[in-house]
Inverse folding.
């Protein structure tokens, strides 16, 4: 099998730039990389969009999902040319399960009490609700371990997640038919690390490692994340 295109999928309260250090290292190593922007409007809509991106790539694809991006790759990964999944501090949903249901089983995190809810217009429909992290809490809750000046920038440029994404259920779980790997961020204050451990164990991932890292593991430990991704590719080869 030819080397897969690595498609990096960001999560909530972040954007494609969150993968910047990992993207740079993968490109420098000669890999083909794509980092599409996730709309963060709904699990089903986001997954359909990412699947459409993936299906227009020639050849095999390795999907890498961070946080909410893990839920997205769980669904979008059903595309025929996806050959593997890598979860980074992510939600490995089961078929018929929502983000809220998986998160609700392990409520001990700092995120819930530091969320902000705002409305946005939807044409010919009731307004939607966006969810973001309080700017003053963002550095500790979401970007702990990141340079404070950088965390401040990330806090004011975060990409909200529509509340709808928390309640929609996954129509498919790609990890049932595709090999998958996962990293647990053991110092995560956004997602209870037990959410990650539970989802990965249930999915029977080929390999799981734990890194003493905050939620943004790909920014705090980019070299370790790159090594994990490339090791997964080596297994596929």
């Amino acid at each position: 099998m030819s080397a897969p295109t690595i498609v990096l999928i960001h999560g909530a309260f972040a954007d494609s730039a969150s993968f910047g250090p990992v993207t740079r290292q993968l490109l420098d190593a000669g890999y083909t990389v794509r980092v599409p922007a996730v709309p963060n409007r709904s699990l089903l809509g986001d997954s359909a969009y990412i699947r459409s991106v993936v299906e227009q790539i020639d050849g095999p694809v390795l999907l890498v999902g961070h946080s909410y991006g893990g839920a997205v790759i769980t669904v979008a990964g059903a595309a025929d040319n996806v050959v593997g999944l890598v979860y980074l501090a992510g939600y490995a949903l089961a078929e018929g399960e929502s983000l809220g249901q998986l998160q609700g089983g392990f409520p001990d995190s700092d995120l819930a009490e530091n969320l902000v809810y705002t409305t946005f217009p939807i044409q010919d429909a009731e307004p939607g609700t966006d969810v973001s992290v309080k700017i003053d809490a963002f550095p500790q809750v979401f970007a702990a371990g990141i340079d404070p000046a950088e965390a401040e920038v990330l806090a004011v440029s975060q990409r909200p997640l529509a509340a709808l994404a928390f309640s929609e259920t996954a129509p498919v779980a790609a990890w049932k038919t595709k090999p998958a790997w996962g990293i647990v961020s053991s110092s995560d204050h956004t997602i209870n690390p037990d959410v990650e451990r539970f989802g990965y164990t249930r999915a029977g991932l080929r390999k799981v490692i734990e890194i003493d890292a905050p939620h943004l593991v790909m920014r705090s430990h980019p070299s370790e994340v790159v090594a994990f991704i490339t090791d997964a590719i080596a297994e596929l080869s």
